[in-house]
């Protein structure tokens, strides 16, 4: 009997990301020292080499070991969706690149997607699961969610992700207009804000992040115009 896939919880993914951030700072410092020891004539070449090497660390770790150092510590790994194999180097680079572009926003869909996938996972058909040691020590296991596919037809993933971008853009436009008409020039230009403006700034910032979370989540579950799920007859 096939063992059910044990997906990695969001808490472990965030913890691994924090560990990797610490490791990346170490990688960056070490790479910078090594590149500078080469005494290259061009400062731009030094910068390109440092950035290129640092951005290649995660893809190589995923392609050849199946996990970053932080993920190894948390006993989780990245694998292909269709089979229990590591990503190819090209897939790992594409996953890392989209992860950088989306940032933490990419993780929002983990809360609602069927296989706990972030946006960068969906784009390369990868999943993040517990390793065998992680499964043996886990207090609970996350199994695949039901997406009610027997009741609804869902738009393709690319369309839901595209609509996320549309709504995020609209949200930024609304925030920009609200900011322009709500704050004085002294507050916007010189950061000399009144108490009312400070409170309003906090309210707008909080509302923005709440709205962002709601929009991304509802787009993914097919509950927003442009990417609505359709009830089967």
Number of domains: 2
Shape: globular
Q: What order do the helices and strands follow?
A: HHHEHHEHEHHHE
Strand content: 5-15%
pLDDT < 50 stretches: none
Describe this structure in words.
The mean pLDDT is about 85. This protein has nine helices and four strands. The protein has a two-stranded antiparallel ribbon. A two-stranded antiparallel sheet has the order 3-4. It folds into two domains: about 130 residues, no CATH class; about 80 residues, no CATH class. With about 230 residues, the protein is mainly alpha-helical. It starts with 9 loop residues before the first helix and ends with a strand.
Note the topology.
Elements: H1 10-37, H2 43-65, H3 69-73, E1 76-80, H4 89-102, H5 119-124, E2 126-130, H6 132-137, E3 152-153, H7 157-182, H8 185-190, H9 195-220, E4 230-231
Antiparallel strand pairs: 1-2, 3-4
Helix pairs in contact: 1-2, 2-4, 7-9
Keywords summarizing the entry:
two-stranded antiparallel sheet; 60% helix; 9 helices; 233 residues; 2 domains; mainly alpha; two-stranded antiparallel ribbon
Short description:
The chain is mainly alpha-helical. 60% of the residues lie in helices and 6% in strands. It has two domains: 10-137, no CATH class; 152-231, no CATH class.
């Amino acid at each position: 009997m096939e063992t059910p896939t044990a997906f990695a919880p969001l808490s472990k993914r965030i913890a691994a990301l924090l560990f990797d951030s610490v490791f990346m700072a170490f990688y960056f410092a070490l790479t910078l020292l090594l590149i500078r020891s080469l005494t290259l004539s061009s400062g731009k070449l030094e910068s390109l080499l440092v950035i290129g090497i640092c951005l290649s660390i995660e893809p190589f770790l995923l392609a050849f070991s199946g996990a970053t150092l932080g993920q190894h510590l948390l006993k989780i790994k990245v694998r292909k969706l269709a089979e229990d194999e590591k990503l190819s180097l090209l897939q790992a680079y594409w996953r890392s690149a989209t992860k950088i572009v989306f940032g933490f926003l990419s993780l929002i869909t983990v809360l609602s997607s069927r296989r706990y996938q972030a946006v960068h996972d969906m784009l390369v058909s990868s999943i993040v699961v517990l390793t065998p040691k992680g499964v043996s020590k886990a207090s609970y296991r996350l199994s695949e969610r039901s997406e009610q596919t027997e009741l609804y037809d869902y738009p393709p993933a690319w369309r839901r992700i595209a609509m996320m971008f549309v709504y995020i853009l609209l949200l930024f436009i609304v925030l920009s207009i609200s900011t322009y008409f709500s704050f004085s020039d002294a507050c916007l230009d010189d950061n000399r804000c009144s108490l009312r403006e400070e409170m309003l700034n906090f309210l707008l910032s909080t509302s923005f992040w709440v709205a962002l979370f709601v929009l991304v989540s509802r787009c993914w579950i097919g509950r927003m115009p442009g990417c609505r799920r359709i009830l089967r007859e």
